[in-house]
Design a protein that fits this description.
With 196 residues, the protein is an all-alpha fold. Helix content is 80%, strand content 0%. The protein contains 6 helices and no strands. Helix 1 runs parallel beside helix 3 and helix 2 (41-60) packs parallel to helix 4 (93-118). The radius of gyration is 27 Å and the shape is globular. It starts with a helix and ends in a 16-residue tail after the last helix.
Length: 196
């Protein structure tokens, strides 16, 4: 029964952690891209919105049935991702944060519902192995998609031009102040005239 439940609940938990990894790695850049602003606080607000909503959802659904919680998580993940993609396509900041909030509901409810579905079915001597399996899957889901997305972004043609421009700007910034400084004369004080 545990293996069957893992097949049912595993995809929901994997999707929740994969979405979390995506947001925590690329969410700040995505938020600034959608808003058309370089204000760094936007990235922090996106992460805060996702994490806070997930935490509050876990507290709110702690007394609900596990399968209902997992269903809520699945719907939240699907709707949240859909609204976020729509926000990226339309460059709507409000829609982006609505999608992030909905995805946070899916993240909290999906993982909570999956765990509460699995653990009651495991015997006392099986719980350590079940939890180990769950966290191995979840941490792989957390890291692998973010690495793939970052590698895909690095292969874009504009990435190297942006990196080169950045390095060039740093070099100019490094050498620029030296160029703007006035040169000191070789002899700051004129030599004294010889006495007759």
């Amino acid at each position: 029964p545990v293996a069957h439940a893992l097949v049912v609940a595993g995809p929901c938990m994997v999707a929740a952690w994969a979405l979390g990894g995506f947001y925590f790695s690329l969410g700040p850049s995505l938020a600034r891209l959608v808003a058309g602003s370089h204000w760094i606080v936007l990235g922090g607000l996106a992460l805060l919105c996702l994490a806070a909503t997930a935490s509050l959802t876990i507290i709110a659904v702690r007394a609900a049935a596990p399968r209902s919680v997992m269903f809520l998580g699945t719907v939240g993940l699907l709707v949240g991702v859909g609204v976020t993609l729509l926000a990226v396509a339309t460059h709507s900041t409000a829609a982006f944060f609505v999608g992030t909030t909905t995805a946070g509901i899916g993240l909290g409810a999906g993982f909570q519902g999956g765990l509460r579905t699995l653990l009651p079915l495991a015997e006392a001597h099986e719980r350590a192995g079940v939890l180990s399996t769950v966290y191995v899957l979840c941490y792989l889901a957390l890291g692998v998609p973010a690495v793939i997305a970052g590698a895909g972004d690095r292969r874009r043609p504009g990435h190297h031009r942006r990196s080169g421009a950045h390095v060039g700007g740093v070099r100019r910034g490094h050498h620029g102040p030296g160029r703007l400084r006035p040169r000191r004369p070789a002899h700051p004080h004129p030599p004294p005239h010889p006495r007759p």
